[in-house]
Write a structure and sequence with these properties.
The chain has 214 residues and is an alpha/beta fold. It has eight helices and five strands; from the N terminus they run E-H-E-H-H-E-H-H-E-H-H-E-H. The chain has a five-stranded parallel sheet, with helices on both faces. Helix 1 packs across helix 8, helix 2 runs antiparallel to helix 3 and helix 4 crosses helix 7.
């Protein structure tokens, strides 16, 4: 059986990290295959170094296109080092962010064009797409409020952007949802954590019965 590639997406403050922490052990109990949990940007040694550069709030001079290229470079290295080998071995890969993030953040948020960023990432990924994407949806006001309430010591360069930037990011995600309804599943992230995790789990079990036993 081939591997399964699951990505978790959402605007800042959607709760992706918390959801993945709660979702992973529940999936491991049901999974018929080993699960590899990873993240972007980062996920492997070289990719993590690029992450430090692109998210450092002191690097305010980074150009929007440079930013997009850095994300794509980190993604490529991450794929080569971790994702592709795991999928080849038939494992389940659960990844915090993937190409959709670049399309929403750089394409829509930075206003450099979704198509331009898509082409850049097509080269980086050689066309690899997730089998399913769980999109945790939350409005930008709620998301930003969560960030400043719970992550005051970890505000990164993108978190600190103006509200209009985060509004464009969410709009970009919603457009991707319309474009790829067969791949992207919308999850209401305004719910309490347990409800969000339950919705994610239910969707994965129902959609991939060959990978997860009920």
């Amino acid at each position: 059986m081939q591997g399964l590639f699951i990505t978790i997406e959402g605007p800042d403050g959607a709760g992706k990290t918390s959801v993945i922490e709660e979702l992973t052990p529940r999936l491991e109990e049901l999974s018929l295959r080993p699960i590899v949990v990873t993240r972007e940007p980062g996920g492997s040694p070289v990719a993590e170094k690029i992450r430090q550069i692109v998210l450092d709030k002191n690097n305010t001079e980074i150009d929007a296109r440079t930013e997009a290229l850095l994300y794509a470079a980190s993604r490529r290295q991450h794929l080569v080092d971790k994702v592709l080998p795991a999928l080849k071995e038939g494992k389940i890969v659960l990844c915090d962010r993937f190409v959709d993030s670049s399309l929403a953040y750089q394409g829509a948020g930075r206003k450099i064009g979704v198509e331009a960023v898509a082409k850049m990432n097509e080269f980086a990924t050689e066309g690899l797409a997730p089998d399913v994407t769980l999109y945790l949806d939350v409005d930008s006001d709620t998301g930003l409020a969560r960030i400043y309430q719970h992550r005051t010591n970890e505000i990164n360069r993108l978190d600190a952007e103006a509200p209009q930037f985060h509004q464009r990011v969410r709009h970009g995600y919603l457009q991707l949802l319309e474009k790829y309804p067969e791949r992207i599943e919308k999850i209401d992230a305004r719910q309490d954590l347990n409800s969000v995790v339950k919705d994610c789990l239910t969707h994965l079990i129902n959609r991939f019965p060959l990978y997860f036993q009920k």
